[in-house]
Amino acid sequence: MLRDGYSIFETVGPLNFLFGTIWAPGAYVPSYGIAALIIGTLLVTLGAMVFAVPLSLGCAIYISELASPRIKNILKPATELLAGIPSVVYGFFGMIVLSNFIRVTFNISSGQTWLAGSILLGIMALPTIISVSEDAISSVPREYREGSLATGATRWQTISKVIVPAALSGIAAAIILGIGRAIGETMAVIMVTGNAAIIPSPIWNVLSSVRTLTGTLGIEMGDVAIGSEHYHALFGVAVVLLLITLIINISAVAILSHLGKSAGRAKRPWLDIPALAPVREKLHPYSQKILLAFIALLFLAIGLWEVSIVIVLAAGAWHYGRERFSRRSIERVAFGCVIAAAMAVLAILAIILGYIIINGLPAISWQFLTQSPTDLGRGGGIFPAIVGTLYLVAGAILIALPLGVGAAIYLIEYTREGRITKLIRTGVDLLNGTPSIVFGLFGFAFLVLFLNVGVSLIAGMITLALMVLPTVIRTTEEALKNVPQSLREGSLALGATKWQTIKNVVIPPAVPGIVTGAILSIGRAAGETAPIMFTAVVFSTRFLPTSLFQPVMALPYHLFILSTNVPGSSTNKYGTALVLLMLVVTFYAVAILIRNHYAKKARG
């Protein structure tokens, strides 16, 4: 990234590149200022967090504190299935349904706006924030709950004043990881934000079109002349994007590490910095009012003055009437909001799956699944795209699985905790948080161009393998950690070598966890578009590849092109979306079933 992006900073200058407001590489006098792209990225991400954080926190509280085991076994897999839906399917749903809803609701010419991008990215960030927040809340010691209830506090007072503050570090890390997920998304934002490289005027106009850093890379890299100033500018954009995501992910890793060290004892919130105490004490009494005022002004700015009035009246009624409410009444209202958040997450999953299934089923036929595309994808089938996807996934797993399992065995079995292992684990975490479009650019610059492999099956396999490698390493590590230490000691005591112990004693009980990680990696690799756009795929071909050095079709890219560039292909694009969705969701469902089966077996 640095090698190909460095020259633009020399040519244009770092300040002009970072703070210039005009991005016009195709103008008579090209301009390469990315301030509008950075602001667009930050605005869309901010809106996504405003949407996602309340829903995620409510759902996490419900799963951890209120849900029965039966409901928990429904909600947790549901949020994991949300994580498994491919980004291009989210983008397709957002472009067809969400954007049209916004256009009609606000009576504007196009619904592809900052608001559409924020809502869609908020939905995509829900699983990450819910999962990490739920883990943080569940890790709060039981004594905290019992002590609070013993003093006469209600369950809601215990949750809001004891449990959530104690889990604040983990919740903060969850939000930061959610921010990283939103900033790194490519395909969905390309399809719903309008992609106008402008700064909204006024800045809070959520109905304005925007363009993000990732969207710029996805749109322009395919048409740029290699080695041109524009080419180097795009790699400069990638460097800035990578730095932003690295800072975000390092922050999350540091907070989670602090949380791990503080487990089991009372923790100060991660924002409890002594130097900020005077500011915090002054602002704390007004923090809720400031937040409500900001939200009311935001709705007022986009023309929804009725909503602003409702917010102001509700806030006033709460402020002046809360002393008259009993603790039980407040608890019922709070629990109602928490349950509503959990039900909203389930409803989002049901709406997306239901819409794709209902509209996609009429396209599914034997011919559709076994024929090649015709008429630019309007007719025929998607057989080469299905096979190409399976080829890419199989190759990626064959590369990533030995590397990932070997790295995990080294980290767990052959090293002690120290600087090197911390460095490796931090590298794995940062690799896991790297945007998929950056993997795609790396594959294009290094594999396709530098190694002269060309746009080919092998380039796509390697790129996807690098992307899923952190998942394989992390899941294998957790599986190996769960093997009791006594088994290792017993094997070594009987005279077995270190490797014999690992091969015959440690790995067999860890196989279910390793398989689960492999299946999750397969699901992620099958649904990704950005890493293969510039490395492996073509839109349409009637023949299957006969060599690793030939390009292939793939379902995610086929759906993207059908949705954005081929009018009159509605039937086939719904069918393609359904096939892709079912393929990926099946992988995730199998992984969930395997995990639950062995969890029950372990408890038994």
From TrEMBL:
Residues spanning the membrane: 7-28, 34-60, 81-102, 114-132, 162-183, 231-256, 290-321, 333-358, 382-412, 433-451, 543-562, 574-594
One GO CC annotation: plasma membrane
Membrane topology: Multi-pass membrane protein
GO biological process, one term: phosphate ion transmembrane transport
Main subcellular location: membrane
Keywords recorded for this protein, A-Z: Cell membrane, Membrane, Transmembrane, Transmembrane helix, Transport
Single GO MF descriptor: phosphate transmembrane transporter activity
Gene3D superfamilies with a match to the protein in the record: MetI-like (1.10.3720.10)
Superkingdom, taxonomy of origin: Archaea
Pfam families associated with the record: BPD_transp_1
Span of domain ABC transmembrane type-1: 38-252, 386-595
Name of this protein: Phosphate ABC transporter, inner membrane subunit PstA
Organism: Methanoregula boonei (strain DSM 21154 / JCM 14090 / 6A8)
